[in-house]
What we know:
The structure is a homodimer.
Chain A: H1 13-37, E1 41-47, H2 53-62, E2 69-73, H3 88-91, E3 100-104, H4 113-116, H5 122-141, E4 145-152, H6 155-167, H7 177-184, H8 186-199, E5 207-211, H9 215-239, H10 260-263, H11 273-297, E6 301-307, H12 313-321, E7 329-333, H13 339-342, H14 348-351, E8 360-364, H15 373-377, H16 382-401, E9 405-412, H17 415-427, H18 437-444, H19 446-460, E10 467-471, H20 475-496
Parallel strand pairs in A: 1-3, 1-4, 2-3, 4-5, 6-8, 6-9, 7-8, 9-10
Amino acid sequence: MLELIDLNRQLSKEIYKDLFPKLELRMGELQRAAKEAGVPLIVVFEGWDASGKGTVINRLTQSLDPRGFTVHAIKPADETEQRYPWLWRFWNRLPAAGHIAIFARSWYMRVLDEAVEQTASPDEVREAYEDILQFERQLTDSGVVIVKFWLHISRKEQRQRHKQLLNDPATAWTVGKAERQQNRKYDQWLASVETMLERTLTAKAPWTVVEATQDRFARTKVFETIIDALEEELDYRRQHPPVPPQPMPKPEPSPTQEHSILDRADLSLSLPRDEYEQQLKGLQTRLRQLEHELYQARIPAAIVYCGWDAAGKGGNIRRLTSSLDPRGYQVIPIAAPTEEEKAHHYLWRFWRRLPKSGHIAIFDRSWYGRVMVERVEGFCTEDQWKRAYREINEFECELAEFGTVLVKFWMHIDSDEQLRRFRAREETMEKHWKITDEDWRNRGKWEHYKVAVTDMLRRTSTTYAPWTILEANDKLHARIKALETVAAAIEAGLAKGRRAP
Amino acid sequence: MLELIDLNRQLSKEIYKDLFPKLELRMGELQRAAKEAGVPLIVVFEGWDASGKGTVINRLTQSLDPRGFTVHAIKPADETEQRYPWLWRFWNRLPAAGHIAIFARSWYMRVLDEAVEQTASPDEVREAYEDILQFERQLTDSGVVIVKFWLHISRKEQRQRHKQLLNDPATAWTVGKAERQQNRKYDQWLASVETMLERTLTAKAPWTVVEATQDRFARTKVFETIIDALEEELDYRRQHPPVPPQPMPKPEPSPTQEHSILDRADLSLSLPRDEYEQQLKGLQTRLRQLEHELYQARIPAAIVYCGWDAAGKGGNIRRLTSSLDPRGYQVIPIAAPTEEEKAHHYLWRFWRRLPKSGHIAIFDRSWYGRVMVERVEGFCTEDQWKRAYREINEFECELAEFGTVLVKFWMHIDSDEQLRRFRAREETMEKHWKITDEDWRNRGKWEHYKVAVTDMLRRTSTTYAPWTILEANDKLHARIKALETVAAAIEAGLAKGRRAP
């Protein structure tokens, strides 16, 4: 695509002086309108070294309300960042609704610098493209506006700029080996840039190539493009007011849609207490050892607990953690999202809480809330929960590709057992706090949840992240099975010998 | 996902007798409603051999109006089909708006049979997944409903069914080597099926796994699933009436959005007639030879002509073809789509007209109509033309991957030259038919078209399918440049030595 770019484009001072102040005003107005409408905006600046990214970003930020944007200067991943899946650091930097995130360099480093310098293998680059397309699709589907710029200058122009920078002691330090290297390998870079533009030019997150020989011109085009994108999104939202989410209607009984996955669980499974005590001891010792080996091997693990109210998640998790070294694991209770969390993609809060390599994160409830409680209660739209299955699979696939040990438990009890436990909680003073009106309300929707849980289990049980159903009418059985499952999964992860970088 | 499937599921005769007739009635009603609403439906049946695909399809068709559906039994690609990109045969079989296409086996053969039997390489399988996701996305984006079934039986069940079939001379022939092979390699197949389900489970084209041990059960679930999908789409369309397309507003002049790609074309380029005659002769001889070599090498070529009215497409094409062997090429004039074409995805009519391997197709106008005239005149919605850039790039990428030589010309003249030619046409009796009121109307929108053409050139000039701008104020120059470009492209294609299978 770049062969069509005219790098000689200029803007006269007169035209610029007339036009640019208007653009700046409009930019300010649109920032306020976007804030009002809750539109998050991501602006990505990629481009040749010395193409003027810094200058144009600087100009952009001057026209914005500083409380509404953040500039993220992206460098190669540091040691901490390398201990997470590669997109983690970008998920962490996503703008909330109404905010602007400006990226000076971005996730595209992976398919540019790392591809050219071959610090990423061709397979990693190929996967990176898939990851990027998924990442941007998840964001734009959720209403994020993404504007991507490639600042383009010729090889000759770059060489001249480098020379100029080197001549001035104040700027000479900005032109290092890597920068000169890029000029030498200009053609190789060019090929990677072309591939990048071709592969990631989507309707919702398109690239704009900016002729950057003249700052004035570049800056004007950048402003115009951002203004257009925001106006378009605001227009769209005015014309398409959101469809209010609906709670799930009462499921109609159907003989083929009966929910046999859950009904098949053998809830009579149980374990005598003496056997339990004995096995527990052995398993806990083994797990402590495995925690240590995970740490050594720098492999992260995520253990997810979902299940019916009163199925025994808390007690189960306590047995899992009681012998672990607390420096190596963390229990992450998931409640209703905060206001800040609601202002982001729903997976954002889980990305932020991923275990770093060598560590274990135990999620007490999880990202599956979207396709369970949020679906049933109508806390999200039908589009949102339907999209979520694929988004979750993609998310877990990224964890798995990074080498994460992933265990997902559905703790299953039957409706009678739940009733017994609810009553026991009401009757026992010290357990009283554990039972609320909400629990009773949820219980009233048992059949709704059963449909949602069945859909969830079916659609998100994958080869890289299968579900394990814990038959939990007998708590002792459920605990031993959980610990055994975790131990086996960690051993398999260690055996795969996949070491996080 | 398959580990969660309960293959023992049954439906009692009583329940079935009560339920099934209602489903059949509903199916008929929905077929009529979908026809009315112009909803195209694709139903894909994949599944184990002997899982009962034929039986359930048979039952399904009995409840449908036979004028409204077609069953496509998919076998390995035959010789003709192998001469086109692999998805060609499926594009050819797409249902029109309001129609139903039932696929007994489908494009998933590529990632199942061919993957397991290794008749497709791992790279081909990987590409096939991308192609499939693109294909289904393009269809569902355009409003096609896709329902996909995997009919699941156990290895043991399959073996028993094979035995039964073999025992009866009337059916013994249906169990050949391939069928027994599948049972032997059941686990290998299972792994491929899992991968397929995981990778192609999208929100808009989801898989339904059908427990197919009992026909009665399988059939009921298939009916219920199709009914749900149709009801959902019809509901959606009722709630979201289509936004009427708008003609392009008059472009606002902007100094950075001036359309320099076209303005940069050097329209003073020309060629004296004697030089022209001499070069023409040589080029035509060379092209005839190249046509023959293409044929031998079984490489297809697609030459696309786009350009301003009166830019000289016809004359240029005549010079290209005049010395070619008419058995090896075809000129395909593209006019406004017919009613049948409008009832399909807009790329459908181009897929159907692709050159087969060894042949040359010359398109006089092309698939770029969507982002030019349809955008400018408002013959399609904004969503549609915005999506089209990516769809076109994906389409051309599939052609290129198949080894197709692809040349795209934009014939460029300036507005004054067009006016001269229009007037000449009006004044010359024998050219009078060439100029219509519509030409004058289009001319009135020169600035609109300029914006559309510039966007088109920028967004669809790729490494695998770059644009060539023909400076056509001088027809002789444009003709020689066109012939040279085609010759060079064919030579490059031959050199790549990529042979179509």
